[in-house]
Amino acid sequence: MGCTCDDQQNLAQSLQNDTNTWTKLQDLLERFRGQRGSLVTVLQQVQDIYGYLPRPVMQHVAEVLRIKPAKVYGVATFYKQFRLTPMGKYVILLCQGTACHVNGSERLAEALCEELQISEGETTTDGLFTLSSAACLGCCSLAPVMMINGLAYGQLTPQKARQIVKELAEQEKGSLQEGGLQ
Amino acid sequence: MQLVRAHILVCGGTGCTSSGSKQVQDVLAKELEKHKLDKEVKIVETGCHGFCEMGPLVIVYPEGTFYVRVQAEDVPEIVEEHLLKGRIVTRLLYKAPVTEEQIPAYKEINFYKKQLRVALRNCGSINPEVIQEYIARGGYESLEKVLFEMTPEQVIDEIKRSGLRGRGGGGFPTGLKWEFCRRSPGDMKYIICNADEGDPGAFMDRSVLEGDPHSVIEGMAIGAYAIGAREGYIYCRAEYPLAIKRLKIAISQAEELGLLGENILGSGFSFDLHIKEGAGAFVCGEETALMASIEGRRGMPRVRPPFPAQSGLWGKPSNINNVETFANVPVIIKRGAEWFASMGTEKSKGTKVFALTGKVNNTGLVEVPMGITLREIIFDIGGGIVGGKKYKGVQIGGPSGGCIPAHLVDTPVDYESLIEAGAMMGSGGLVVMDETTCMVDLARFFLNFTQSESCGKCTPCREGTKRMLEILTRICNGQGVPEDIETLERLGRVIKSTALCGLGNTAPNPVLSTLRYFRHEYEAHIFEKRCPAHVCSALLVYSIDEEKCIGCGRCLRACPAGAITGEKKEPHKIDPEKCIKCGSCFEKCKQEAIIRS
User: Fold this and answer.
1) What ipTM describes this predicted complex?
2) How near does any CA of chain B get to the CA of A180, in Å?
3) Range of the domain at B60
């Protein structure tokens, strides 16, 4: 792997050029500046802005909050919620809980990986779907369950899961075409 | 306040929402308006009723008629028949498993009949987003009583006498915990609610937070008064967006009414409550890790002592209790320690909420008095095993707990009996298993979970769980060796006694308890290379029963590996060399001609 410094610089530049998100970031950091123990919350809100934690932004957070970059990176990699790469428009959380496991959640994972042509933790090339897993979504009576952007889908079968993803993809295609016509 | 003749309760918990309760509510509002009933009938969006499997749930009061699996298209019928003509829509009633009897009333259903709802007292009965509904049911009376009629010592004494023990797993006496924190010197103290319900298979805390957030807030305020804290945190996992939303609403409503904040009810006592969202780390359920996480650091546990009561959040004396524990506090104050202590067993008082899931007919949240037997929970409340299959055992307490086999089905459910049986209360997940569950696979599943959630700070947990998982995976793949069982037991013992925190201390439990009761399954995997439950795919062999096969070709088309051959209308064959053991043929075959052994 070659040096990625240039890439990071370019990314940093383009992030700063996006004034909308950059202002949001500055406001956010201003709100939390000097507040102790706010790093997890700050990173959560940064992720809300960007959909993930871009490295130059983490660097910037460290500088503004006067925290060592290593600490910021340490927290960002410790918690499952944080992502260091961009996420898809739809984030599929597959429940890995006990009830889901005994009701066949592994077969759902297989079906979705095949349908989307990605492995767990990855994002489709069109940027639509990210396949991820959660320890337990707490909807055990509906097992097996997956959650897409906060909405839980229960009592799934591999076929149903494929269908849901297909429908979302279709929907996206439809709206794209509409957009093209306007 | 406007009086209405009927209330329609629509469940708005996570389970029912995912099965379409929002749409039901929208259509209901429109229908009521259409029939000009909107002034007479009130819609109440409630929290979770616990019977999520049957959702969306709709209950019509004053009759208490319980409709299950209601879809938007059923709503006009409910409005026209039930609300206009007073006729119950029988096809939407709950049908008892086995007898198929239709039961109209909420209270008559077996699932609810044997329950005793204390912590869940308001869940499903009130709108959690309206503080007045909580107050109307006696809410915040206990806080008032405590602030004006009791000293902090009296409150602690009351909780101690009630026998309330931590509902998060350990079962430490709550009153004692409060007393330690009260006696710790310090000007600033914190009270923390552990709502980082991470155990796979448990969701009672979510339901309480979604269905009755004020009971937790009131419990925390009472606790804060008792230990002398002015500030509190609720640490809630981010996977529970609805719970967080309702908590935020509840806190701001309580602040508006002066039930939180400066000088509560003019008593001179002040208490501020904050929400901290977790970021997805199971280990944060451990109290020292949780506090590190609130402080914005990596959530790693540390050595105790010092205990949180001496030096906790930001080095100040702190007290952590679980959601369900706090939800019990206001009732204890209101109805007295004696009342609470009259429920349960000698050492385990009160009730406990269990998340009943797995291969059981009625799944959902059940609250039962301590000391009830597993049999009553699984067969009376749970309605027995799905499909009449054979009951094999129950996994209790999540990744920290263990499996209790079928012959111990009369074990009473209390802290001591469960530990004696090799399991533990944990947070109360009850996963019922039938003959199709492989115990080795289940042990592997839990270890896989704890291993990936291990924070990596101490060696026994980081390395030990990894080695155990490797061995289990090997056994499931048919590569087990005879000494594996002994190695697992030795590793388990070492990890249990040397790991730094509760996660590591309890991580070997699922393995050790299955080894204790289901050793023969391990032996079958290792010596006979056979999975008795037909779960471990590497150990399965698929073949076709030539007598039953009609040559329809369904399996042939389903096989992704091209392992099945055969002419139309002639018996087919599976090439074991090519077979990837995916089971597709087994599912597709309508003649039950595929043999899995």
Assistant:
1) 0.83
2) 31
3) 6-112
- Cβ of residue B125 closer than 8 Å to a chain A Cβ: no
CATH label of the domain that carries residue B407: 3.10.20.600
Q: Do B357 and B488 sit in the same domain of this protein?
A: no
Question: Does the distance separating the beta carbons of B297 and A75 come in below 8 Å?
Answer: yes
Q: Which residues of A touch B202 (CB under 8 A)?
A: 136, 138, 140
Find out whether B241 and A150 touch, Cβ atoms under 8 Å. Answer: yes
Give the C-alpha distances (Å, rounded to integers) separating B522 from B134, B403, B440, B478, B542: 52, 14, 6, 11, 22
Return the closest-CA partner of residue B212 out of B298, B311, B129. Answer: B129
H helices within B370-410, ranges in order? Answer: 374-375
CB proximity A70 to B under 8 Å: no
- DSSP assigned state of B462: I
Closest CA relative to residue B470, chosen from B447, B453, B454: B447
Q: Is A26 left (phi over 0), alpha (psi -120 to 50) or beta?
A: alpha
Evaluate if residue A1 carries a pLDDT over 60.
no
Q: Which of A78, A134, A141 sits opposite B299 (nearest CB)?
A: A78
Say if residue A151 is in the same domain as residue A171.
Answer: yes
Asked if the Cβ–Cβ distance from A37 to B295 is below 8 Å, we say: yes
On whether the CB atoms of residues B393 and B406 are closer than 8 A, the answer is yes
Residues 145-174 of B with CB under 8 A from A: none
**A98·B357 Cβ contact <8 A:** yes
The sign of the torsion formed by the CA atoms of B421, B426, B431, B437 equals: negative
Collapse the DSSP code of B447 into the 3-class scheme (helix H, G, I; strand E, B; otherwise coil) and give the result.
helix
DSSP B106: G
**Does A66 lie in the same domain as A123?**
no
**Whole domain around residue A137: which residue ranges?**
90-181
The phi-psi region of residue A171 (left if phi > 0; otherwise alpha if psi is between -120 and 50; otherwise beta) is alpha
pLDDT value of residue B1: 53
- pLDDT at residue B547 greater than cutoff 70: yes
> What percent of chain B shows pLDDT beyond 90?
73
Determine the Cα–Cα distance for residues B223 and B417; give it in Å rounded to an integer. 29
Confidence of residue B358 (pLDDT cuts 50, 70, 90): confident
Q: Are residues A115 and A141 in the same domain?
A: yes
Helix (H) or strand (E) holding B65: strand B65-67
Is B46 in the same domain as B17? yes
Which tens digits make up the pLDDT trace of B55-97? 899 999 888 899 999 999 999 999 999 999 989 999 999 988 7
Q: In sequence order, what are the residues at sequence separation of 6 or more whose Cβ sits closer than 8 angstroms to the Cβ of residue B394?
A: B358, B374, B378, B403, B404, B430, B431, B432, B433
